[in-house]
Amino acid sequence: MILPKELPDTGELVIVKVNKIMPHGAYCTLQEYNIDAYLPISEIASGWIKNIHEFIKEGQKDVAKVIFVDRTKRAIDISFKKATSGERKNKITEYNLEKRAEGMFEKALASSKTEQRKAEIIREVAQKEHTYNDLVNDIFENKDPLSGMKEKEFKQALYDLVFKTIKPKRYTVSYTAELTTTDTKGGIGLIREVLSEIEEKGVAVLYLGAPHYRLTAEDESYPKAEDKIKVAQSVLEKYNKRIAFEIKSNKGAASG
Fold first, then answer.
1. Model confidence over 210-233: pLDDT tens digits?
2. CATH superfamily of 13-81
3. What CA–CA distance (Å, rounded) separates 234 from 127?
4. In whole angstroms, what is the distance from residue 41 CA to residue 53 CA?
5. Are strands 75-79 and 61-70 parallel, antiparallel or unpaired?
6. Strands 252-255 and 13-22: what pairing?
7. What residue ranges do the domains of the chain occupy?
8. CATH class of domain segment(s) 171-255
């Protein structure tokens, strides 16, 4: 979060570091809040725990779920066992993306020489974005989230850094094509011509051993990558009187 809450909410997933292990629990630090929390031994794992040191180690970092918050006393209890494996995985991914985005923010402050106005910049940015990762994603998607920002140097530095650092995600689909022909004279040459035409459409062709070929397409989304395979199929269909083909994938098969 760009402006973190003072305390977490009950049920919230948090990144914790185990600091001190006691006979009946452990004291931990919530990394995102820089505040201590208590991990009862009963919340470490399911079942009876004879030796707490067999389950957790000092210095260990993990994902926990907040199960109790006393805002007056600033007391917090957390649980390892109540955080599911899926929740843990998603939280770690979210945390790492947020730290990466925060790092870009700090680099932009340094390169634009606006560190002395950091607090003011953070307050202005926080009026438009909730997290650093949201900010970076919106910049990357050309939404211009900092439109009208006073600190022009910082804004430009951050935008430049985002577009330099983040690369568009690419998706790949792969199919196996079986091509056969009864033309003993010109069939092989025709197949080569057809495969060359398919490659010109943006589909990579790999010879697997007659009569099998791998067709691979890549794009910024699965649907667009699949569309390239469809184009390759349409090329093959133009020659279906001389070439028999079958394209197979884990989704089924198309023949001609």
1. 899 999 999 988 899 999 999 999
2. Nucleic acid-binding proteins (2.40.50.140)
3. 51
4. 10
5. antiparallel
6. unpaired
7. 13-81, 86-165, 171-255
8. alpha beta
